[in-house]
Design goal:
Strand content: 25-35%
Radius of gyration: 28 Å
Number of helices: 16
Low-confidence stretches: none
Structural class: alpha+beta
Length: 819
């Protein structure tokens, strides 16, 4: 007898507001379905976004027929990621009224079913209309994010960036992005599987497994629990309503889960079986503490994993795509793998997107990426009416119970920047107390709901925050808690200003660049390749962003010649900015214990703060991040008055590390002259200054450069400019490049690129219209030096002996050359 019918696949799409009709693949979004049917242009190309605005102003409905031979018994729909204000009908009988994309809905549909053919229809109310209607019902006006061209998104429990952001397009998409299936309730169904680890010591741990059920009748069901090699059966009596059981697995000599770079990511399998369903979780055994103890500077903000403090190196995550249908598990995994490949160990899931799906967190578990999880509230003033707060309670309970067992999740944060938003709007400034009380009511609702659902979760009230119930300015105060430091970008301060603050943990900071030229070619025609063209301005969503990129170039570099060089130099500039911050803040360890730059990825092709292009290609910043986030790293940091340069050695590993550091001077012709060579030792999890040299040691027409090797097999290099890059009278490097198939048979369609330099070449970047990954990029070469780089195409060539891609090469001098 059928007990489950998968309802995903092809549905019909229509609108009660127009004659438009198409097919739609569910899970999926309506905009993509219309684009696939040729009813709207691609909103990512040119300024087509303007031409698709009508879509979000209409109501839409999707419909599917299904067959059921025997509808007797208790049946329910299982629905997740329903976006957002929607009514679900079975045979024209309304069975669900939904208004929260972040909840799971399981409505009983038994009375609406009939033998044979049935019709399932979902009517989506326009998100724009729904937001306006709900705003009108509020007891007082609630301002929405100034980043959103579409108003009132704060009224709806859906991704806030869908209404636009300063890196996202604004089209208010809608659709169904998760599961939709029809299931028969056989006495009881599993609602949640929640685990908690207790009594960790050197030799054992207890894993508490609590399984909650919903039953529609009284009865007994057999439940099998398996953890590792241990398997047992429990015959559990059920009564109508909610039921739960708890079992404790005692684990001897557990293998621990560690963040990337700190140990293995051991995962155990937990399986919960009933006669009608199976739930599987991967469990990593570990302890997590958030340290916020007081000290002379204020209070700490540091993560201790398995008894060891971990410096968090990483970036902020936004949704993988602006349109759900354009995402895939493979694309998401590629982005996360790129984070680990750049020596990151933490991702912050920002509060204006999604609670991600299971595959995302499973991937983070496997890769060792710690997850800072924001609850999905960002930069807005939100309702605090009873109906809204009740909705939030259900959301928090579902999401925390769904995700708490993932070892990667180390923190639950109440929101993103809601405290700061109290000062961003005229209404809130005039009556801050009223809005503060409203915010406090919402924030405490989230906290109470989380602690009731999963008391073991670690809570942080907001990001940024100087502490619990501290509503101060955590954008400029650096003594306690986590900090968002945006003075360099938004306040137009010089890069050196990053060294004027000493954050305990910087969870947001960033600097923009343009997306790479091959990506620009996907949305702009040749006539549009000008920074001031309407198309290029359309793909810059931060007000004043293009002007700021250009103005900062004037301060730091000679202005580039040509559009391609402007794009390249913007990425070099971005990398230099973020490196300046990370190098200094890592040198402050353990005062500072985390640096998460904004942002890892893009949702569409746009100028932004991301280090990965839309599509996953690495920008200059990401190649630089792989170096400045190395577990063992060396950085040159000038003193405040510029009279000295100190070399900081950071060791994020568990072992003593011996480093051989070679410091040299580089002339503008690329001649390298040895200055100092030293051996230094750094103890585990420490940062030390291993050498200080007077600035007068470096002639005005020289750069100071260094390379190092370590006893654990790692190595690195870098350079430091005494004044500014634009002060350097750089000479042509005369770069030469040759390309050949990699290996005897062209392994995986890869190519080896040999770059040779006759002079000084800074920030050498190789680029191609063919997507792929370079083994190294954005590197320096002195006169007579060469570098072999392997390029692996994303899609291997059909024949290893086929023609190689066409590569472009950039360096700092040639991009600024007047010739």
């Amino acid at each position: 007898m059928t007990s489950m019918i998968d309802l995903s696949g092809e549905w019909s799409l229509t609108s009660p507001d127009s004659a438009h009709a198409a097919s739609i693949s569910i899970p999926g979004d309506i905009h993509t379905a219309l684009k696939t049917a040729g009813l709207i242009p691609d909103p990512y190309i040119g300024r087509n976004e303007n031409d698709v605005q009508w879509v979000a102003h209409q109501d839409w409905q999707i419909e599917k027929t299904f067959f059921i031979d025997d509808p007797d018994g208790s049946w329910y729909l299982d629905i997740t990621y329903l976006d957002t204000v929607a009514i679900v009908f079975v045979n024209d009988v309304p069975v669900l009224s939904a208004d929260n994309c972040f909840r799971r809905y399981r409505p009983d549909v038994s009375s609406a079913l009939k033998p044979g053919e049935n019709t399932l229809r979902i009517l989506f109310h326009s998100n724009i209309k729904a937001g306006a209607e709900r705003q009108a019902r509020q007891p007082f006006y609630l301002p929405f994010s100034k980043n959103c061209p579409i108003p009132d998104g704060n009224m709806l429990r859906k991704p806030q960036c869908h209404f636009g952001w300063d890196w996202n397009l604004a089209i208010a998409p809608l659709g169904l992005y998760g599961e939709i299936s029809l299931k028969r309730l056989e006495i009881a169904r599993i609602e949640h599987v929640v685990t908690e680890q207790r009594h960790h010591d050197d030799s054992s741990v207890d894993l508490y497994v609590t399984v909650s059920f919903h039953a529609d009748t009284q009865g007994v069901i057999p439940i099998h629990l398996q953890f590792g090699e241990e398997r047992l059966r429990l015959d559990c009596g059920m009564r109508p309503g909610e039921n739960s059981i708890t079992h404790v697995f005692h684990v001897e000599n557990p293998k621990l889960w560690w963040p990337a770079g700190s140990g293995e990511q051991t995962l155990y399998s937990l399986i919960v079986d009933t006669p009608s369903e199976t739930v599987t979780r991967q469990i990593g055994l570990r302890t997590v503490e958030l340290l916020t103890d007081k000290d002379e500077a204020g209070s700490r903000f540091a993560f201790r994993i398995n008894g060891r403090e971990i410096f968090c190196r990483g970036a902020n995550w936004i949704p993988a795509d602006a349109l759900f249908s354009l995402t895939s598990p493979e694309k998401t995994e590629d982005l996360l793998q790129s984070a680990v490949d750049a020596n990151m160990n933490m991702i912050r899931i920002w509060g204006g997107g999604f609670y991600e799906d299971e595959h995302f967190y499973d991937t983070c578990d496997r890769l060792g990426l710690m997850v800072w999880q924001d609850f999905q509230f960002a930069c807005n003033i939100y309702p605090s009416t009873p109906d809204f707060l009740e909705n939030v309670e259900h959301e928090v309970e579902y999401q925390t119970k769904r995700l708490i067992s993932h070892p990667s999740i180390v923190l639950w944060c109440g929101d993103n920047e809601l405290v700061g938003a109290l000062l961003w709007y005229e209404e809130t400034r005039k009556n801050r107390d009223r809005y503060l009380v409203s915010y406090d009511r919402l924030n405490h609702t989230i906290e109470r709901a989380m602690k009731k659902a999963v008391p073991q979760a670690i809570w942080w009230p907001s990001s940024p925050a100087s502490g619990y119930l501290d509503y101060g300015d955590a954008w400029h105060a650096d003594g306690s808690g986590d900090m968002h430091f945006w003075s360099v970008w938004h306040e137009n301060k010089p890069f050196e200003h990053y060294r004027d603050v000493k954050p305990r943990f910087c969870s947001e900071f960033g600097f923009q660049s343009y997306t790479s030229l091959p990506v620009i070619h996907t949305y702009a025609e040749e006539k549009d390749l000008n920074i001031a063209s309407p198309v290029m301005e359309h793909h810059q969503r931060n007000v004043g962003g293009n002007e700021r990129i250009a103005a900062t170039m004037f301060r730091n570099f000679r202005f580039p010649s040509g559009f391609a060089n402007f794009v390249y130099l913007s990425q070099v500039q971005q990398g230099v900015a973020i490196k300046t911050a990370v190098d200094y803040w890592r040198s402050l360890k353990p005062h500072c214990m985390g640096a998460l730059y904004w942002q890892l990825n893009d949702t569409w092709p746009v100028a932004s703060w991301a280090s990965l292009d839309y599509g996953g290609g690495w920008k200059v910043l990401h190649y630089m991040a792989r170096r400045f986030f190395q577990p063992v790293a060396v950085a040159a940091i000038p003193s405040e008055d510029g009279s000295e340069i100190r070399f900081s050695l950071v060791n994020d590993t568990l072992e003593d590390v011996t480093v051989t550091l070679n410091i040299s001077l580089l002339t503008l012709a690329g001649e390298r002259r040895s200055l100092r060579s030293i051996d230094a030792v750094c103890s585990p999890d420490a940062a030390v200054t291993v050498l200080t040299i007077p600035a007068t040691t470096v002639p005005s027409d020289n750069l100071v450069a260094w390379s190092f090797t370590t006893s654990n097999g790692s190595s690195g290099e870098g350079h430091h400019v005494m004044e500014s890059y634009k002060a350097l009278e750089l000479l042509p490097a005369d770069l030469e490049m040759s390309v050949s198939p990699s290996g005897a048979q062209g392994e995986n369609g890869a190519f080896d690129i040999l770059v040779q330099s006759k002079g000084l070449a800074l920030f050498v970047l190789i680029e191609s219209e063919t997507p792929g990954r370079y083994s190294d990029n954005a590197f320096d070469l002195a006169a007579g030096e060469n570098r072999k780089v392997r390029f692996t195409p994303s899609v291997p060539a059909a024949s290893p002996s086929g023609s190689p891609p066409v590569f472009r090469i950039y360096d700092l001098q040639s991009c600024q050359s007047a010739g």
